[in-house]
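Re: [ENG-882] Designed sequences occasionally contain unexpected residues at chain ends

Forwarding the minimal case from QA. Structure tokens:
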């Protein structure tokens, strides 16, 4: 093969002919031109030497013992390492049919015997030039392929680094959100399990509504901080045993606005959604909620979902003013209403999604009971 980086490289020619006289003659022509030569005296030897020496050009006699020039040509062309070596076939007065066979086997050019030195060397030079171009092209292609592979590996490495960075940012947000939420829950009659269950309930309802996995995941985090604003409510109101005065109730309602303010102004999609959830999870579809008496679709979907997810869990849980209700009773209250709750409070689509998957919420309630500690809850929420 050509060593393109070495200018003094002498092309190597294999001469195969059973006539020693012709071999000598051709060798002297070639060496006069500065080419290196090797000799083979039958077809079999020609194939072997082509394989081991990989010359830059082969001169072949048509009729040789053991394997004909045609057989040698076929063997060279069927080898992926040799297939582009130029072959000049030396022939006597062969007919058209024979020449066509040789061309279709892969012979590059012919030279009639007796050999005309000038013509043969001209053909050799042309063939070698073409071979050199072909080698250069192959080398260039190999370099390009190497470059593409190297760039691909670099890109894959960068992509893996970005993915890892995203994952740790994601975990950082998730942990911050959960820790914030745990802080708020420490002071409430709710436990860490309440936020866990509301988060899971919200995810279930969002999935049942056909929301995509990114939305469902964001909402799972956003729901965790729905009551974060309670950290700013004084203990005597937050932990009061008995009914609120009007002033206490209006202060209590402020946990929505305060929570939204705490979560506002972030670039994080979780926190942006969390802000909306904190602000609107007590709004009602019929406009009777707080803090802004929004109604219908002016309430963001995430607020509508968390509203029902939160109400379900509140009804299941014992409060100072009420016992814990069964799943059946809770289902009836949410879908049929009672003195405090009405189906009109909920987005009809969210309510009908709840009706489809209500047993999943019962499962979540049973699986995440309040006997677990806040730390368990935190670890558990982070691992989901
Ligand atoms: Fe709330
Ligand atoms: Fe809640």
């Amino acid at each position: 093969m050509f060593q393109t980086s070495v200018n003094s490289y002498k092309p190597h020619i294999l001469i195969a002919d059973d006539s020693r006289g012709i071999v000598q003659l051709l060798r002297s022509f070639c060496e006069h031109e500065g080419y290196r030569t090797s000799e083979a005296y039958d077809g079999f030897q020609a194939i072997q030497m082509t394989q081991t020496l990989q010359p830059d050009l082969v001169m072949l006699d048509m009729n040789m013992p053991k394997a004909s020039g045609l057989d040698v040509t076929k063997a060279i062309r069927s080898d992926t390492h040799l297939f582009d070596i130029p072959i000049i076939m030396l022939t006597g007065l062969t007919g058209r049919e024979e020449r066509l066979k040789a061309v279709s086997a892969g012979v590059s050019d012919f030279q009639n015997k007796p050999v005309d030195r000038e013509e043969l060397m001209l053909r050799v030079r042309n063939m070698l030039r073409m071979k050199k171009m072909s080698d250069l092209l192959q080398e260039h292609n190999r370099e390009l392929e190497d470059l593409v592979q190297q760039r691909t590996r670099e890109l894959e490495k960068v992509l893996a680094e970005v993915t890892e960075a995203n994952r740790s940012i994601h975990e950082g947000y998730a942990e911050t959100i959960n820790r914030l939420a745990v802080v708020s829950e420490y002071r409430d009659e709710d436990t860490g399990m309440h936020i866990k269950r509301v988060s899971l309930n919200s995810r279930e309802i969002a999935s049942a509504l056909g929301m995509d996995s990114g939305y469902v995941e964001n909402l799972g985090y956003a729901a965790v901080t729905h009551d974060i604003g309670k950290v700013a409510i004084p203990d005597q109101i937050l932990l009061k045993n008995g009914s609120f005065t009007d002033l206490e109730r209006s202060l209590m309602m402020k946990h929505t606005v305060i929570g939204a303010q705490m979560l506002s102004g972030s670039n994080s999609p979780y926190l942006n959604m969390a802000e909306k959830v904190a602000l609107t999870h007590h709004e009602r579809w019929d406009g009777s909620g707080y803090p802004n008496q929004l109604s219908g679709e002016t309430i963001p979907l995430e607020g509508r979902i968390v509203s029902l997810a939160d109400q379900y869990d509140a009804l299941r849980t014992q409060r100072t003013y009420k016992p814990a209700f069964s799943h059946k009773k809770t289902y009836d209250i949410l879908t049929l209403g009672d003195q405090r709750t009405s189906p009109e409070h909920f987005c009809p689509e969210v309510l009908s999604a709840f009706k489809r998957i209500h047993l999943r919420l019962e499962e979540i309630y049973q699986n995440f009971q309040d006997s677990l500690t806040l730390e368990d809850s935190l670890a558990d929420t982070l691992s989901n």
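QA comment: On inspection the terminal residues look reasonable. The chain has 15 helices and five strands. Proposing we downgrade this to a documentation issue.
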